[in-house]
Design goal:
2 domains, 17 helices, 5-stranded mixed beta sheet, D-Maltodextrin-Binding Protein, domain 2, about 45% helix, disordered C terminus, about 425 residues, alpha/beta, single chain
């Protein structure tokens, strides 16, 4: 086990103290902060469990080092986040801090339910936060990167001693009897498109911002078509299964119904409880010509609500700096397996842990979406999943699916949301 390099060294009572102290400077009442954490989609139990452990650790440490501060946690599904924050904000009681992935944070920002960070460069620069520039707005930042969650291959080493290194090998292993699982969620399956050079063109085509959206060129269309063709042919193998959600894949690997899946690193603790030493992780397979897989890394963001008092905002900013400092980011990496630091001062002990080394290598090749890309992909998840299903099960040809994807990426005024 890797150990962190650092170590942490009521109402009635407060009311009575204020009455006694009066104008003589008695103790101040505690500062209460509402922290809302979006825990992924409704079916994403793996992410929910990981974030709850994470939140409990970091808030208790912050409160122990900041007497007179109370953090009140509330967990929501991503789909419920915007409505909940909106409803509370109409009463002037919105959260002080929000932690969520890129797409829901972008929606809160677009609706004015969160406000840019007022932290100064001299406070943020020493932390060397990765991807901070993705969220710049003038001289401020609409949100602060908090943690990265890489995508990997998780497999049962007892059933599959050597993981497939390429997409070609992945299908070969399935043909030999290995039970392989792939997701039908576009953001979790996009890594396989990168092997054909199709992932970045697809992201550009699905960009929410018309100013940066790029239609597929003839060369890009050929790449996407090659990927869709590979998905269709892969499904011909009876031991290769497509599952609606990544959470479903994790459950099937844990129950030994599958031998190999693509997974998010936050699933490792759950899989380890079920598989023990049989669990192994690897990089996702490279493309047919050896191009490294470029998965979408999940990025958790920290943002500030609009309804905070000046005192609450000061504490919220102090909390942000606390969870982003070297100490906290190191501890979160060690304690909450699957979460990697955005603070580049933290040294990832890759020589001590092959598992962390694999996560680090995955992140080096990963795509981290900004606000516009994140919204564009997430807002079309359901429709894209249906198209991918029609493709892999042969209900529509890859050519027809490609045309439907292009129509989805470039809606007519009548269809535009």
């Amino acid at each position: 086990m890797i150990r962190g390099r650092f170590r942490l060294g009521t109402g009635l009572a407060v009311a009575m103290a204020l009455l006694v102290g009066g104008c003589q400077g008695g103790p101040r009442p505690p500062e209460n902060l509402q922290v809302v954490i979006a825990t992924g989609a409704g079916s994403d139990q793996v992410v929910r469990s990981s974030l709850q452990r994470l939140a409990t650790q970091m808030t208790s440490e912050f409160m122990s080092n900041n007497p007179g501060t109370n953090l009140h946690l509330r967990f929501l599904d991503e789909g419920d986040l915007a409505a909940s924050v909106r409803d509370h904000s109409t009463l002037g009681a919105g959260p002080d801090v929000v932690i969520s992935r890129v797409p829901p944070t972008a929606r809160l920002s677009d609706e004015g339910l969160i406000v840019p960070s007022a932290l100064e460069p001299e406070q943020l620069d020493p932390l060397r936060i990765q991807f901070l520039q993705h969220f710049r707005q003038g001289n401020q930042f609409r949100a602060l990167p908090f943690l990265l969650q890489p995508s990997l291959a998780c497999y049962n080493r007892e059933r599959l001693p050597k993981p497939p290194a390429t997409l070609v090998e992945l299908v070969q292993r399935a043909a030999e009897g290995a039970r392989v699982g792939l997701p039908l969620q576009i953001d979790d399956l996009l890594w396989s498109a990168s092997g054909f050079g199709a992932s970045r063109p697809l992201l550009q085509a699905l960009d929410e911002d018309q100013g940066t959206r790029r239609p597929l060129s003839p060369a890009d269309r050929a790449k996407v078509l090659a990927w869709l063709g590979w998905l269709y042919r892969a499904n011909v193998q009876p031991t290769l299964q497509f599952v609606d959600t990544s959470d479903g894949l994790v459950q099937r690997l844990a129950s030994r119904q599958l031998d190999w899946i693509s997974c998010n690193a936050t699933a490792i603790p759950q899989l380890r409880r079920s598989l023990g030493s049989r669990l192994a992780v690897a990089l996702l397979p490279a493309g047919p010509n050896g191009e490294p897989a470029q998965p979408l890394a999940r990025l958790l963001l920290l943002s500030f609500g609009r309804d905070s008092t000046p005192g609450q905002r000061r504490v919220a900013e102090r909390f942000a700096l606390f969870v982003l400092n070297d100490f906290s980011q190191n501890n979160l990496m060690v304690r909450a397996v699957g979460n990697m630091p955005v603070n580049q001062n933290v040294i990832v002990p890759v020589k001590e842990s092959p598992q962390l080394a694999t996560m680090q290598r995955s992140l080096e090749n990963s795509i981290v979406p900004d606000f516009r890309q994140g919204i564009g992909l997430r807002s079309r998840t359901g429709e894209l999943r249906l198209l991918l299903k029609q493709n892999v099960y042969g209900e529509q040809s890859p050519q027809k699916v490609l045309e439907a994807m292009e129509a989805l990426a470039n809606p007519t005024p009548e269809r535009a949301p």
